[in-house]
Write a structure and sequence with these properties.
The chain has about 90 residues and is α+β, with helices and mostly antiparallel strands. It is built from 1 helix and 3 strands. The radius of gyration is 21 Å and the shape is extended.
Length: about 90
Amino acid sequence: MRRHRIRALADRRFRPCSIDSRAYLPIAPKLRAQPFTVSSPNLIWLVDIKYIATGEGWLYLATILDLATRKMRIDLPLAALMTTAQRQRPAPA
């Protein structure tokens, strides 16, 4: 590449910005290191949402885990898939 005087183009890095005017408030403490013990299902859920940039736009990945049973909940992702399918009406394969 150096011999041909070419170089790769790098995209600008995504930099999240805050538009919250209450940025002076203290940051909440991290509770991640706490030892959670759960006696029955549906008491504590772990939830995470990821934003994935693609060439066609943003994709959203939502995960819900019940801490007692360690089973993934599929209600939210399944509802999102059904809504998208109804809205887009994809052609049959």
